[in-house]
Amino acid sequence: xxxxxxxxxxxxxxxxxxxxxxxxxxxxxxxxxxxxxxxxxxxxxxxxxxxxxxxxxxxxxxxxxxxxxxxxxxxxxxxxxxxxxxxxxxxxxxxxxxxxxxxxxxxxxxxxxxxxxxxxxxxxxxxxxxxxxxxxxxxxxxxxxxxxxxxxxxxxxxxxxxxxxxxxxxxxxxxxxxxxxxxxxxxxx
Length: 189
Description:
The chain has 189 residues and is α+β, with helices and mostly antiparallel strands. It has a domain at 40-155: Arc Repressor Mutant, subunit A, CATH 1.10.10.10. The chain is built from seven helices and five strands. The protein has helices spanning 3-7, 26-63, 70-82, 87-94, 98-110, 132-153, 158-178; strands at 12-16, 19-24, 85-86, 114-118, 126-130. The strands form two sheets. Strands 3-5-4 form a three-stranded antiparallel sheet. β1 (12-16) and β2 (19-24) form a beta hairpin. The longest helix has 38 residues, at 26-63. It is globular. The model is unreliable at 1-9 and 181-189 (pLDDT under 50).
C-alpha cells in the first residue's frame, strides 16, 4: 500500500469560532465532489442536446424573418451592435476561418448590406460598416423577432416568464465564462 494513503488525513476537526462541532472526512469530500461533478456532466449532457434542438428551431423561426441567412444575420448584428469591425476581428469573434469571413463579407458588400472603408488610425486596415438600408432592415427584423419571443413567453405565467429569462441570462453568463470562443468585445482600430 502506498505511503501517501497511510498519511492522508481522513478527517479533520471542524470549529465554528472556538466551538468544536465535529469531524469531517476530507477524503469523502473529495470523492463526493468528484462524483457530483460527474453527475453534473451527465445531467448537462442529457439537457444540452434537447436544448440545442429547441434553440435551433427558434433560430430557424427567426431566420425566416427577413432577407438574410442566419450566418449573414450574425455578421450584420455583430457590426450593428459593436460598430465598424475589421475582417480579422470578425473572424475571431465568430470563430470562423479567414477565408469564410472574407467570402461572407464579399457577398454582403456585393448585396449592398455592408460597406468597406479604411480605418482612420491605420489605413492598411479595412473596416466593415453596415449601410443605412441594412440598419433599417435589421430594425424591422428585430421587431419581427420580438413576435417569435412573444410566442415563446405567451403560454407561460409571469413567474415562469421571469424564470425563463433569468435562466437564459444565467446560461449565457456561464457559457461565456467557460467558452473557448472569444466573446469579448473587440477593440476597434
